[in-house]
Amino acid sequence: MSDKKHTHLGMIQAIVNRLSSNSFMLKGWTVLLVSALFVFLAKDKNLYFIILSLLPVISFWLLDGYYLWQERLFRSLYDYVRLLDEDEINYSMDISITNKPNITWKKILFLKNNLGFLSCYIYFNSDNNFSSSM
Q: Tens digit of pLDDT for each residue in 48-75?
């Protein structure tokens, strides 16, 4: 593999790693915030805290879906660059050249692994708090 291709692929891989790291950090922040809000829920059983705890989960779910979507697009760019000839390498980070219409943000949001976190939160919250606060 040429130095140009190796450098370009390394740049794309660094972006994929950063997006993956951001996605992981979001899940950690979600657990932290929701756990803190559950402390208030256990104490007061207030419907306001139940609704309030849902806001960061949905926000982080949307943001995590965005990071996963971008990660998939950059992975397809990686595959595209991997197959290029040496003279075609231009260090472009334009993810639109991969032309993958099947990779949409909406589709990524509703993947099993992305929905699992949200569905677990809703299940445990409804099981433990909704029934006892109403």
A: 767 777 788 888 889 888 999 999 999 9
**pLDDT given at position 78:** 94
The encoded tokens of residue 93 equal: 């980070």
Residue position matching structure tokens 């803190």: 36
Task: Look at the chain and report how many structural domains it folds into.
Answer: 1
Exposure of 26 by Cβ count < 10 A (0-12 exposed, 13-18 middle, 19+ buried)? buried
Contact 89, 1 (CB under 8 A): no
Residue 93 DSSP code = -
Tally Cβ neighbours within 10 Å of residue 35: 10
pLDDT band at 18 (very low <50, low <70, confident <90, very high): very high
Q: Are 81 and 9 in contact (CB under 8 A)?
A: yes
Please choose, from the candidates 52, 92, 98, the residue with its C-alpha nearest in 3D space to the C-alpha of residue 77: 98
Backbone angles phi, psi at 27, to 5 degrees: -65, -40
Burial 105-132 (b: 16+ CB within 10 A, else e): eeebbeeeebeebbeebeeebeeebeee
In which domain, by residue range, is 40 found?
Answer: 3-133
